[in-house]
Amino acid sequence: MVNKSQLLRRLLVLCCMLLLCVGLAGGQLVQLQLINGESYVRRSASFLTTTSTVSAARGEILDRYGRAMVTNQTGFSLVLIYSSFWEDKEDRFEILLDLANRVKADGTTTASGTDAGDGTEDTTEDGTETNTTDNSDSAVLNDTMPITDTAPYEFVGESGDSERKALSDYIKDSADTLGLQAVKDAKAAASTANEQNPKYDADGNTIDQVAALDATTIISASDFISAMRTYMENNLGMPTGLSDADARTLVGLYYSMRRVNFSNNATFTLADNVSMDLIAYIKEHHQQYEGVDVQSEAIRKYDTTYAAHLLGTVGPMWQTEWEGTDHGGPYKDKAGYTMNDTIGKTGLEAALESYLHGTAGSRTVETDLGGDSVTDHTNSYAPQPGDNVITTIDLELQGVAERSLANYVSGYGRGGAAVALDPDTGEVLVMASYPTYDLENYNKNYDAISSDSRSPELNRATSGLYPPGSTFKVLTAIAALEEGIIDANTTFTCDGTFEYGGQKFTCKNHEQPMTLDVTQAIKYSCNVFFYNVGQRLTGAHLEQWCDKFGLGNVTGIEIGESAGQAAGPTERDANRKNDPTLREWQGGDDVNAAIGQSDNLFTPLQLANYMAAVVNGGTLYKPTLVKSIKTYDYSDVVEEEQPEVLGTIEFSDATRALVMQGMSEVTAEGGTAATTFADYPIKVGGKTGSAEMTEYKDGVEINYTNGLFVAFAPFDDPEIVICVVGEGAGHGSAVAPVVRDILDAYFAEEEPDTVESVQDENTMVP
After folding, report:
1. I want to staple 498 with a disulfide (CB 3.0 to 4.6 A). Which of 447, 505, 526, 545 is the partner?
2. What is the pTM of this model?
């Protein structure tokens, strides 16, 4: 049994040990808090750990034979961090202007520093012409406001295009804040009209007239910049007394910041493609440029100057895409996206965004108080590049088509388009629109592109709407033959005029009076023959046949397109809901519609697809630009496209034989395309067309005639169908040489290596 003295000794030892531990702990706390406390505070404040997203390289886009169209290269961007650059920083505008001027100077220096300053052109293996003075690697300031850089300020682009629409929406949303009374009044009037005078779209849905209001047609660009400048000076601390040029720069950048919702949750990319010299300067003066980060990223590299419209553009994600439905949004609900991502805006880049985008990685960086990196952990998870797209396009044919369009259509001062399809699959071999633009320098040349009165951004192949003219007569003939209006022996005599309901309709397509059957009427493109047919067939029946052949309907092509409209009483009634001044459908419209005039408006793609259905015996395919999609390393097939049938048109072999015979004679001696194809070594069938157009510019009526030609070859076993439209060309024979050039290249082309031989893999960008 332990006695009392022993317990006391043990307790004393325990207390001494406890006091010793407390003393040691207290001494350590004194050391940390009092003696070295200030040093540890400074040290703890001098390190900052941040985790950021590393964007994945987008997938590549190739032609059907594996020739590169769009790939990637590594570039550097200046990115602004909201918390350290913008928030509660009094001199933010001064620093922003300094950076903007340095970026502009960087771009000018890089562009002027190229070795080849003579502007000569080189030719690649695929025939693509490249300009040796390309300045695509120079810095690009992220100013997306569609207003000219210099006074007198003007809005850039056509009313209603994507950038103008975004600016219009911004103006409407900010009208109260900016004090734009004219816009406020217009919104109020449109809101009243929604209730008292509703308007409807082609499907009969009510149009929101406030949303449809274009604010850029209500106020001037100068008024908007002035209002923005006043607001930024009074509310955001922007310095007063700036030059007009400097104020324009800051207004444009602030507008662009607002579009991406620049905040603690979203950075702002100030400039892309900055040079190493500018990067070095920013790094050397990092204390002056606090909150300015340099990031490496995969930047789109365009390996061809062709196919701009179908390849499309990319750009930073806007708030309306992150939170709204623009360009495939809202992206906030989609896995793998952040607010500052680059996404496809137009063309295949937008249509195949989900494949091309890839999966982002992460990067953790620890920096000291001065902003210098201490540790950099980029392998939290690595980015995975997007899938690669193999298109149906033949890049060599595409180049031939674009050069030929420029050669034969440019002289008319307007534009044109060419589409080539495989009639047995719906695959698009060529899709060319003139005028076009250079994707490599799209951002740099945006003002010039958007202000071009010929609208080079419009993809005329899918969104240009044209009366089909006499190319429509083949459909009229099929409809009349199938419905028993005419047969192979039916003839009408043409003396150059046709009278109906007190109106006189003319035919100037052959010099002498003639009595013609249906094949001869197609050969000579006789209006009077088809006036007679139209009177008997009526527009109501023509509408039905247009629907069967996909005319006036969207085709389902992956990129954006216009539906157009097929002339007839149903379409006229729908149009009269929005424009009561339009007269009701009458017999004279039956006559005009039969020759491809009246309200008929179709795209070149629709015309090519309709002709493909004629020559293949009645199968209407969905046109496609995609042959297959493969993984980023080309090791696996993600998706293999198969021909998709939209519908089957029932018409007899006898009917097909009659219209095919007529189209064979169009290119033979005496036909409307004989000059181009009478001696061609391969038999070509087709139909020329001329279509009258009227437009109004500054209140002045302008009339001109388009030329159209739809053709196919070889005649006995068609492999390719081509439609060409030349605005203002006058007659289909004027654009027939474009078809000939495409056929020359198509039949002369040796089979290239297939995409299986492609070895290059998409490079993962750190």
Report:
1. 505
2. 0.81
